[in-house]
């Protein structure tokens, strides 16, 4: 993965895998998409009603560290599993379509989360609170017989608007730019929404266009009522010019105009991404950890 993309350096190079339908799981209507949410016990899968995803989202709360998960739950762009009821769970796993092998685990009970992981197929890593990561790793190793390693994520937020990084080479990309963006390499196309058109209409996309092509991009890949998560990428031949920083600054300004707090997720060793975030006034608020199998 390019080191200037603000995602952990060893994550999947592009989160594009489609969600496969699971036998015995009902698909629920949420917004304009279908979203599967399942109650798990030690031996059964029980489908919930159509309000389950919204109930789980309400229980999790629109916190800055939950932006991807709330985005997925409210827009039907992923899947979720819970032990207990969605509005009063003991443990929950939520994954987005863009990160189908990378669920976020919500609980303070490492043993219950491990039970949940044992029943869910297809995960490669799970994001957990740093306070329980040692217990989760130990239980995954001993109870699931898996070899694991840890990778620290860094979550940042810009709670107060900072000075903009204006650059005449960078502008907001509009729906009229869809053909231009669609012709760009995959890393220079926004994701996180159901389509490119939805990213341009409901999200925020900014980029640098040179010689008729996009060479740097920043965009919101998850959006809730209170928070917007930003991703950046610059073409290898145009790095070191501040283009991604300027594009991200435009996205940040647009989020603040909507009264939405910008958030930024990256890996502890992604120095380029951290520099851009800090230059834009983002501050660290959490350091959850991936348990990687």
Structure in words:
It contains eight helices and 15 strands. By secondary structure, it is α+β, with helices and mostly antiparallel strands. Strands 7, 8, 9, 10, 11, 12, 13, 14 and 15 form a nine-stranded mixed beta sheet that branches. Strands 1, 2, 3, 4, 5 and 6 form a six-stranded mixed beta sheet that branches. Helix 1 runs antiparallel to helix 2 and helix 3 crosses helix 4 (133-143). The protein is globular and about 55 Å long. The model is unreliable at 7-34 and 42-49 (pLDDT under 50).
SSE ordering: EEEHHEEEHEHEEHHEEEHEHEE
Q: What is the rounded distance between the termini? A: 19 Å
Which regions contain 5 or more consecutive residues with pLDDT less than 50?
A: 7-34, 42-49
Task: Find the structural class using helix and strand composition.
Answer: alpha+beta
Q: Describe the largest sheet.
A: 9 strands, mixed
Compute the gyration radius: what is it?
A: 19 Å
Summarize the entry for a quick read.
By secondary structure, this protein is an alpha+beta fold. It has helices spanning 52-60, 67-75, 110-119, 133-143, 178-182, 196-202, 243-257, 271-279, and strands spanning 27-30, 33-40, 45-47, 78-85, 88-96, 104-106, 125-128, 149-157, 170-172, 205-210, 213-223, 227-234, 261-267, 283-286, 289-292.
Short descriptors:
alpha+beta, 293 residues, 9-stranded mixed beta sheet, 8 helices, 6-stranded mixed beta sheet, globular
């Amino acid at each position: 993965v390019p080191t200037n993309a603000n995602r952990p350096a060893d994550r999947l190079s592009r989160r594009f895998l489609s969600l496969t339908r699971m036998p015995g799981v009902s698909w629920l209507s949420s917004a304009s998409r279908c979203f599967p949410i399942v109650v798990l016990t030690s031996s059964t899968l029980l489908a919930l009603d159509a309000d389950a995803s919204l109930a789980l989202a309400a229980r999790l709360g629109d916190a800055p560290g939950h932006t991807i998960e709330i985005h997925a739950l409210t827009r039907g762009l992923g899947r979720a599993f819970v032990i207990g009821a969605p509005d009063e769970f003991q443990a929950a796993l939520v994954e987005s379509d863009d990160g189908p092998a990378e669920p976020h685990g919500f609980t303070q009970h490492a043993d219950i989360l491990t039970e949940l992981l044992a029943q869910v197929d297809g995960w490669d890593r799970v994001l957990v609170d740093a306070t329980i990561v040692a217990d989760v790793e130990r239980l995954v190793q001993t109870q699931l017989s898996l070899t694991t390693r840890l990778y620290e994520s860094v979550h940042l937020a810009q709670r107060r608007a900072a000075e903009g990084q204006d650059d005449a080479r960078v502008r907001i990309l509009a729906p009229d730019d869809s053909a231009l963006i669609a012709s760009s390499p995959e890393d220079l196309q926004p994701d996180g929404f159901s389509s490119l058109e939805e990213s341009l209409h409901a999200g925020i996309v900014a980029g640098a266009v040179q010689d008729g092509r996009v060479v740097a991009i920043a965009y919101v890949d998850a959006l809730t009522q209170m928070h917007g998560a930003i991703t950046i990428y610059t073409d290898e031949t145009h790095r070191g010019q501040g283009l991604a920083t300027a594009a991200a600054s435009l996205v940040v300004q647009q989020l603040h105009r909507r009264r939405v707090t910008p958030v930024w997720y990256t890996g502890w060793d992604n120095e380029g991404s951290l520099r851009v975030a800090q230059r834009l006034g983002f501050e660290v608020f959490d350091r959850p950890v991936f348990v990687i199998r």
